[in-house]
Amino acid sequence: MLIEPIANILNGAYDKREYPALYEQFNIWNIVKPLKGMRLLDATPVYRNSLLKYRALLAAGADLTVGISSVMAYDEGIVGLLRECGVKICSADECGNDEIFDIVMDCAGAFSFLSPRIGYVELTRSGADAYRDKGLPVFFADGGAIKRIETCLGTGESFFRAMGYLGYNDWKGRKLVLFGCGKVGSGILYYAHKLGAECHVVTDTGVVPERMREFAEGFTDFRDIDAVLKVLKGAFAVVTATGVRNALKDIPAKAVTDCGALLANMGVEDEFGPAIDPKFVLNGKKTLNFILEEPTLLRYIDATMALHNAGALFLIGQHLPAEYRFILPPADMEEEILSVTRRDGLIGDDLRLIV
Length: 355
Hints:
- The strands form two sheets. Strands 3-2-1-4-5-6-12 form a seven-stranded parallel sheet, with helices on one face. Strands 9-8-7-10-11 form a five-stranded parallel sheet, with helices on both faces.
- The chain has helices at 3-10, 20-32, 50-59, 76-85, 147-165, 183-194, 225-232, 253-257, 298-316, 331-344; strands at residues 39-42, 63-68, 88-91, 103-106, 119-122, 138-140, 175-179, 198-203, 218-221, 237-240, 262-265, 326-327.
- The chain starts with a helix and ends in an 11-residue tail after the last helix.
- Helix 1 packs antiparallel against helix 3 (50-59), helix 2 runs parallel beside helix 3 (50-59) and helix 5 (147-165) packs antiparallel against helix 9 (298-316).
- It has ten helices and twelve strands.
- This is Adenosylhomocysteinase.
């Protein structure tokens, strides 16, 4: 059975308080086998912490294939270990569209070209449009409250962990200019405040969440270029987290590269834009936390992975009308997972910021 080899790879790497939702899911599903015989492809980015997600699916009786693609980063070493264990690996670049799965558990629409028997479970907002003409139900894990744990708290924490990995650990009193105050930006702002940084946020000032205002020194409207140029002066670091490609296009590139600050991108897209050479930006403009062995700590992604898993079970148990296609996580499903996270996890206090 594949569960034991995966347990051997994990080898006690995590405290169960780091993954309370997946721990409970594994224990229950290992008894009731709700996915027995179901052929699933799971395209979650493959890192060591993903093994706990796979373990729960295998315990549920699923016939599991792990999907990898150029769309999302993955740990080649973990992929190799999975192959050695006998887990099937499918590359989006090599997988034919005649592959038959009951459910495709996708990420960023990388495997949306497949036509599963039942439907899809999508992990990210960036993958939503890929299923527009598929004619099959899509459970959208990004559409509820739980995903904010990962994108807000998890990504915020990982930005500073990545900076620490590069040798930048002391933030007290240092000026951080943050572009964007959505889910990712809010997390960076929250952790900047906890670390004593003086954070200045450039964003659409009309839509800043009220609960975030206490964490910043000030907010500057991104359309006021003169004000943005003033904010950049004296910055220790500048980080983009707008979720918009080429978000800094209206700001003179020289003003950004010559301000003396460390430059980093935390968006999936190139937010600095083509006018700024990648050599000026940490990790060559790629999302900074992916320099880490664990880009998002398990404690912040546990509930998301459990929800992604639960989405497969939800689709199997439904009799959806033909016109019913796009499914947000039901509130009771999310609350069940969140209650376990609050009760048994390590991040209960921080959850009050977002859910």
